């Protein structure tokens, strides 16, 4: 929705990837922020966010839910835990500007965070 906000590293990773997933949890977080008035610039893009990312939707499985609940990580945000667990279960790196995810370094299956 805003490719100018992505780093060159992220753009290269997306272009080089065999597959790119968008977590349904991320769509929820964006639309919730729009509804609450915390991200008004995104409001015109909500419909496109839903329709254009549908084919890229990461699965949400019981294994992901269980991993999120059992993940040995001090971060308490349930949505970030689900996103991290999805990344681990799918065996792919996570694109995020949120450095909180870096605390997962060394976690079995964690492929790392891409941003800088």
Helical content (DSSP H or I, runs of 4+): 40-55%
- Strand fraction band? under 5%
Radius of gyration: 14 Å
Biggest sheet statistics: 2 strands, parallel
Key structural traits:
Rossmann fold; 116 residues; mainly alpha; single chain; two-stranded parallel sheet
What does this structure look like?
By secondary structure, this protein is mostly helical. The chain has one domain (3-114): Rossmann fold, CATH 3.40.50. It is built from five helices and two strands. It has helices at residues 8-16, 24-35, 46-52, 62-70, 78-90, and strands at residues 94-95, 113-114. It has a two-stranded parallel sheet with strand order 1-2. Helix 4 (62-70) packs across helix 5 (78-90). The longest helix is centred in the C-terminal third of the chain and has 13 residues, at 78-90. The radius of gyration is 14 Å and the shape is globular.
Give the helix/strand layout:
Blueprint: H1 8-16, H2 24-35, H3 46-52, H4 62-70, H5 78-90, E1 94-95, E2 113-114
Parallel strand pairs: 1-2
Helix pairs in contact: 4-5
Summarize the structure.
Helices cover 43% and strands 3% of the residues. The protein is mainly alpha-helical and 116 residues long. The chain has a two-stranded parallel ribbon with strand order 1-2.
């Amino acid at each position: 929705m805003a490719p100018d906000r992505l780093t060159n590293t992220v753009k290269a990773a997306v272009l080089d990837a065999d597959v790119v997933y968008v977590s349904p949890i991320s769509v929820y977080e964006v639309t919730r922020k729009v509804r609450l008035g915390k991200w008004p610039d995104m409001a015109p893009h909500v419909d496109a966010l839903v329709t254009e990312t549908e084919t890229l939707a990461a699965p949400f499985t019981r294994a992901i839910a269980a991993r999120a609940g059992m993940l040995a990580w001090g971060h308490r945000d349930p949505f970030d835990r689900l996103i991290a667990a999805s990344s681990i279960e799918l065996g792919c790196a996570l694109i995020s500007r949120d450095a909180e995810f870096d605390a997962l370094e060394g976690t079995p299956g964690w492929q790392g965070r891409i941003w800088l």
